[in-house]
Specification:
four-stranded mixed sheet, UDP-n-acetylglucosamine1-carboxyvinyl-transferase, Chain, 23 strands, globular, 419 residues, 2 domains, binds uridine-diphosphate-N-acetylglucosamine, alpha+beta
Amino acid sequence: MGVYHISGGNKLSGQLRVYGAKNAILPILASVILNAGESVIHNCPNISDTCISIKILEDIGCKVAYDGETMVVDSSVADVCSVSAELMREMRSSFIFLGGLLGRFHKVNISYPGGCELGARPIDLHLKALKQMGTEIREEHGFIICEAKRLIGTHINLDLPSVGATENIMLTAALAEGETKLTNAAKEPEIEDLEAFLNGMGADVRGAGTDTIVIRGVKKLHSVEHTVMPDRIAAGTFLVAAAITGGKVLLTEARPEHLYPVTSRLIEAGCKIASEDSTVYLEAPTELRPIEFLRTRPHPGFPTDMQPQIMSLLSLAQGVSIISETVFESRSKHIAELRRMGADIIVAPDGTTFIIKGVRKLHGATVESKDLRGGAALILAGLAAEGDTTVLGSKHVERGYDQIEKSLKDLGGNIRYEA
Ligand code: UD1
């Protein structure tokens, strides 16, 4: 596993293009199975989760060509309806392949997904919904075996607006008989991108971005060409990189409206934000202000995927901030590492409320990334800290950032990746 070496102190400034979204490309790559044809996908982020998805597609018989930006998948020859346990363990979002395979073959053999660092991350909502659509589900030797003679549209109400369950239902329903009405659906922008992709191949999906999604099953889908939406979490991370180092950054090819939940909080911390059609500009204040209370929520609330990064920022704000993590019960592994760098953070007895007393300075240390966004938060802290920081465990960061060291270096950060 690689490491990042960072010498803190440089103000990060400049312009950066936002690349395609990890959480959009992954469900899209699971949907390409459905059209039994060609899918041309532009703006694919070059991250390790994309590479795992390619391996899964190749394993099930698809032909994939990828040049680091555009991917062409031919799923007409796919003939395997299972995903190896090894690949399933590599990333949690592999579970979205369940919907793609079930929709196409009415039969899937899949194991429990990996990527469980953030707590239990159950899949009960996915399975309950697929049962409601007529799928028989049984477990054998750690595998979940799903079979459906017919997939029939119905009304599904999710107990929680789960992103993954919403996507699995959309995929399964695209070729099902009749209409599926999904209420209390997740409203994340990536769901809208998935709707656009599915409709591009001839599906009939309406309402993504709201809490009610209606999918009218069609008999057949066709080839599609699509450009993946920009990554709002990577964009948010780069905004924080400028904010935490006292710099300024202009993000291009961004979607400012996707970033409001984050930019509104950065304004509270004292940053100046100016947005236009596809750009977001941030200028850091001379002194960061605390945020009295920040709670992570499903979209359009503050994204849990930005909680660790904003915590690094608030570690240097002059006053006390409180963060409440309400989406994942164990998203706190970065805290012990931030403390090694001099951050003053207390975890309340409930384990999900964090009290951050801003310090004047963080200092360099050797710290370990234990998950994707926690790793990014440590890199941000290292850029702002006095002295040298080594962040171990690059593999987590590489899952979701396309060469983060290059983006940060382009902005003037002193960061080096060592394989
Ligand atoms: C997706 C994102 C992830 C993000 C998360 C929340 C992708 C590839 N990943 O993950 O980056 O952090 O949304 O915005 O898009 N839950 C259940 N039962 C289920 C499913 C979920 O109880 O069957 C719970 C989870 O434990 C969690 C909450 O619902 O507490 C939200 O999870 P979910 O929205 O499903 O997250 P993911 O789709 O895994």
